[in-house]
Amino acid sequence: MSDDTVELGVELLANLEDGRLDLATALDRLETVTTEPRTTRTILDEAEKRGVVDREDGILRVRSGEYVSFGSDVVVREGEFTCRRCGASISTGHFIRFDNGELGPFGSSCIEKVTGRR
C-alpha cells in the first residue's frame, strides 16, 4: 500500500460534490484510485480521522466543501486511453490534478460521475 495512493484517495473524497453518499457509491469512486480492499479501508479510515468524511450506517457525509474545478483542476488530453472508471476506449482523456498526484484518464461522463457532478 502506497502512502501516495492513500493521499490521493483521501483527496478524492475531500473533493466530491456529493454532500452525502452511500458506501457502495463511495467504493465505486475509490476504485478509480485502488482496487485493493485493504487500501480502500485505509483511505476511508484516514478520511474519517482527518474530518474529511463522517461515516454512519453505511452513509458517508463529505465535510470539506471543496470541489474539483473543471476549469483549473481537470486537464484534457487527446490520445488513446482507457477510462479508469468504466474501461472504455477513449480518445479524449480527462485527468484530475490533485496536490498528491493526477487521477485519470476518464471519459467525459465518467469524470462527472467520479467527481459527483451527476
From TrEMBL:
According to its UniProt record, what is one Pfam family this protein matches? DUF5830
Q: Which domain of life is it from?
A: Archaea
What InterPro entries has UniProt attached to this entry? Answer: DUF5830 (IPR043870)
Record protein name field: MarR family transcriptional regulator
